[in-house]
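can u do me a favor
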């Protein structure tokens, strides 16, 4: 199932790139960086969890619809989760395939703001804890396989194709299966990229 999702996602990016070539192609690029994720929602206490450092890496295609507005589908491997400041330093490690479709607006040269929907497919999930100098880890099937969210952010295009951006992922889908818990993926991403 996960291999099928990966093939579908790659096909989606390929189709977007092919369509973009017949329009105003802004380029294909790669992007990656650090992620700071946590669980959010009304059932999450701020004292229970802290941001967990992860990473994301992937690619994107830019399609300019006007001089100041572009559409950017992307495909990223993203490590999310949370950290608990308990005696075992317990943590959730959730690995996703993120597919955002971003609308970028360029109010002035170099600067852009963006927003768009994102669907994420769970690749694997595990929970870990440190006990008496040993790390105990187990895979979990408690996490839903898909996660829907909204991405918001601001970016800046540097010379020679380089770019930087900061974004926030706001998950809408409760992440736990068979649970009424109001718990979502929420987090920041700091990224650097290059457009070919």
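np, heres the sequence
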């Amino acid at each position: 199932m996960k291999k099928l999702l990966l093939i579908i996602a790659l096909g989606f990016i390929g189709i977007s790139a092919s369509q973009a070539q017949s329009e105003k192609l802004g380029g294909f690029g790669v992007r990656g960086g650090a992620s700071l994720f946590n669980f959010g929602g009304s059932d999450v206490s701020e004292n229970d969890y802290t941001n967990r450092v992860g990473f994301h890496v992937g690619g994107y295609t830019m399609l300019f619809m006007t001089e100041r507005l572009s559409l950017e589908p992307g495909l990223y491997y993203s490590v999310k989760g949370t950290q608990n400041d308990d005696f075992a330093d317990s943590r959730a490690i959730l690995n996703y395939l993120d597919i955002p479709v971003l609308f970028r607006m360029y109010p002035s040269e170099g600067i852009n703001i963006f927003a768009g929907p994102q669907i994420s497919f769970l690749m694997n999930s595990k929970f870990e804890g440190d006990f008496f100098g040993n790390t105990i880890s187990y895979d979990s099937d408690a996490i839903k396989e898909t996660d829907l969210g909204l991405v918001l952010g601001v970016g800046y295009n540097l010379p020679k194709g380089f770019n930087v951006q900061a974004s926030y992922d706001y998950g809408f889908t409760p992440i736990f299966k068979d649970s009424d818990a109001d718990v979502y993926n929420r987090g920041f991403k700091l990224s650097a990229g290059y457009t070919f």
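The helical segments are 2-21. hope that helps!!
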